[in-house]
Amino acid sequence: MQLTERHRHYWQKNLRITSVLLAIWFFVTFVIGYFARDLSFSFFGWPFSWWVAGQGALIVYVLIIWYYARYMNRLDQEHGVAEEE
């Protein structure tokens, strides 16, 4: 199958958003999680590192999924490959 310029543009945008969101996931999971243990102040009665690792990361994961689904739906409609309901 021969890929058209439209297909290449669609795939390039798909790879770009996937790369950016994976970089955000990596940063939240490993970088912030690693350095959060050095945060030693109390936040609502719990150590702040617990909030970062236990709550903040989950919120970011949900936002990543929500944003990816929304972005890809718009990209699919823009390139004419959206699934019709």
How does the SSE layout of this entry go?
Blueprint: H1 5-36, E1 42-43, E2 46-47, H2 48-79
| Quantity of strands, as a count | 2
Instruction: Tell me the β content.
Output: under 5%
Average per-residue pLDDT, rounded, comes to: 86
Radius of gyration: 18 Å
Instruction: Estimate nothing, just give the exact number of structural domains.
Output: 1
Order of strands, widest sheet: 1-2
Biggest sheet, in brief? 2 strands, antiparallel
Run of helices and strands: HEEH
Structural class: mainly alpha
Please give the share of residues in helix.
over 70%
Global geometry: elongated
How far apart lie the N and C ends?
A: 27 Å
How would you sum up this structure, described in words?
This protein is mostly helical and 85 residues long. The chain has one domain (5-79). Helix content is 75%, strand content 5%. The chain contains two helices and two strands; from the N terminus they run αββα. A two-stranded antiparallel sheet has the order 1-2. Helix 1 runs antiparallel to helix 2 (48-79). The longest helix is centred in the first third of the chain and has 32 residues, at 5-36. It starts with a helix and ends in a 6-residue tail after the last helix.
